[in-house]
Design a protein that fits this description.
The chain is of the alpha+beta class. It has one domain (about 35-190). The protein has one helix at about 10-70; strands at about 105, 125, 145-150, 170-175, 185-190. Strands 1, 2, 3, 4 and 5 form a 5-stranded mixed beta sheet that branches. The termini are far apart.
């Protein structure tokens, strides 16, 4: 008696294995795609944060430069230039009481200049371009204009100057925000005049 074997029964068993293999590859490729997407998204966020920090850093440097212009009373004095109004005067110990915005002789209530928030309401500060738009134009593309505070140091030795008749010593605190309000750069610099 001859038994017939059907070759089709062998192929039916193989169809299930091919489907299982295809499903495993599909899951692996999906996980790989999700990983690549996640990595790309996090790298884009890091690049955006780095760019925003650099923008804030440059804005803080602009605030430092405006503060130095005020301290030294330097501006374009040529006949064709538009002069700032009021004209800046050189800041010294004797001009400490003139009440210029952003300039303080002996500020009270500041315990740590490194964490002092110039954007808080009621804080001593001046925004870039607020003294005179001809000294420094406003900085575009920021969440808020950079701010600075000039503090006359009572001890010129902080800047390395001698106490008797030497140059005045100033501490300039500059803060800037980037395009996002959560990005903030603080810069503190000593300056003599």
């Amino acid at each position: 008696m001859n038994t017939l074997h059907h070759p089709v029964s062998k192929h039916r068993k193989q169809h299930g294995v091919a489907l299982l293999t295809a499903m495993i590859f599909l899951v692996v490729l999906t996980l790989l795609g999700i990983g690549v997407f996640s990595t790309t998204t996090s790298e884009e966020k890091m690049a955006r944060n780095f760019r925003d920090k650099e923008i804030a850093q440059q804005a803080a440097e602009a605030a430092l430069n405006e503060a130095k212009i005020l301290i030294t009373a330097s501006y374009d004095n040529s006949a064709s230039a538009t002069k700032p109004s009021p004209l800046p005067t050189v800041l010294t110990t004797s001009s400490c009481t003139k009440g210029i915005a952003g300039f303080a002789c002996e500020p009270t209530g500041i315990t740590n200049y490194g964490t002092y928030d110039l954007y808080a309401s009621g804080s001593l500060n001046a925004a870039v371009g607020s003294y005179s738009s001809t000294l420094s134009p406003t900085v575009v593309g920021l969440n808020a204009q950079p701010r600075y505070l000039i503090v006359l140091e009572q001890s010129p030795s902080v800047c390395g100057a001698s106490a008797s008749g030497g140059p005045s010593c100033f501490k300039i605190i500059a803060q800037a925000r980037g395009r996002m309000s959560t990005t903030r750069v603080n810069v503190i610099q000593y300056f003599t005049n």
